[in-house]
Amino acid sequence: MRVMGVDPGLTRCGLSLVERRGRQLVALDVDVVRTPADAPLSTRLLTIGDAVEHWLDTHRPDVLAIERVFSQHNVTTVMGTAQAGGVVALLAAKRGIDVHFHTPSEVKAAVTGNGSADKAQVTAMVTRILGLHAKPTPADAADALALAICHCWRAPMIARMAQADALATRQRRGDAAKVKAAR
């Protein structure tokens, strides 16, 4: 399974590709797309979109793992992050690629065992898990790798939960049909 991890942001958008080979995780690529803060929003989103399209077409990931941002103190930062993440999700959806969102605390807990871990701890564990010779920099690159790792480890549980949900839905429909027939 190839997972593209995305740490969305307008100034720096981290992109990574991690492949799960049995129990081993292998980093295939990592990069950070940068846009100038003084550029128009539409231009910045276009730059991010162009880079993501290139990654999707070049790497052909099976799934995307995007950071879900739900609160920050700076509303402008939240909006930019959400807009960048939306562009990425849209481009993946247009190609029929599944998109999953993970919160920062989910990612930190998956990678370090501590949902409140700091960036240095996350970077150290990403380096160790992937057997990298050097720490990925900047932090956005490490965060993108952490997102991909998180999804690789959570994917089996997500699939089991989807199967259970589908089964429950079928059972509810069957029960409703029985009740309707009994009336």
Concise summary:
The protein has 183 residues and is α/β, with parallel strands linked by helices. The chain is 57% helix and 20% strand.
Name the helix and strand elements from N-terminus to C-terminus, one letter apiece.
EEEHEHEHHH
Radius of gyration: 19 Å
Structural class label: alpha/beta
Which ranges are low-confidence, i.e. pLDDT below 50, for 5 or more consecutive residues?
none
Measure the end-to-end span: 49 Å
Helix content: 55-70%
CATH superfamily: Ribonuclease H-like superfamily/Ribonuclease H
Biggest β-sheet, characterized? Answer: 5 strands, mixed
**Tally of DSSP helical segments:** 5
What is the CATH C level class, in words? Answer: Alpha Beta
- In the CATH hierarchy, the third-tier topology is known as Nucleotidyltransferase, domain 5
Instruction: Write down the domain tally.
Output: 1
The CATH architecture assignment turns out to be 2-Layer Sandwich
Please state roughly what percent of the residues sit in beta strands, choosing from under 5%, 5-15%, 15-25%, 25-35%, 35-45% or over 45%: 15-25%
Task: Write out the strand line-up for the largest beta sheet, numbering strands in chain order.
Answer: 3-2-1-4-5
Write the layout of secondary structure elements.
Layout: E1 2-7, E2 12-21, E3 24-34, H1 41-59, E4 63-67, H2 75-94, E5 98-102, H3 104-112, H4 119-130, H5 139-182
Parallel strand pairs: 1-4, 4-5
Antiparallel strand pairs: 1-2, 2-3
